[in-house]
# Entry
Amino acid sequence: MQDERCGYYDGLTGAVLTWQDDAFSPARGENGETPVADAFTQAGAGPTGERQLSVSFRTLHRPTADLVLGGALEAAWQALTGGLPAGWGASEPAGLTWSRRQLTEPAYERAPRPTWTVVVGTEELVSRYGLSRPCCASCAKPAGT
# Structure
């Protein structure tokens, strides 16, 4: 996350970050502790005080017989939540257990038409990070990719 007052901060913990040795690292205050960004502790913009982190990325793959989709999503999910997605489906509620292989099958079957899926996290993430609802992602496989 980026805030004009403190610069960069961790979106999950609020820790102020500095750029060191080609990577972000937690900043250290005079007392040796990592300060928390004011933007993180202030109430959200909406009336409920909730915050939402939106991440968008795109991957392009050559269509090969051994291609398995979902690796980039899995890596991003792991980096952001510390765990793997719990489930997926063609619509909400996403009731299928997370499986990259099973996520890939409908894309192959529908090709070259696009495929849209939704991916969800676990209730454990809600309690671990104090979230009001589990993580959720949507994935689209555009036609011809």
DSSP finds four helices and eight strands in the chain.
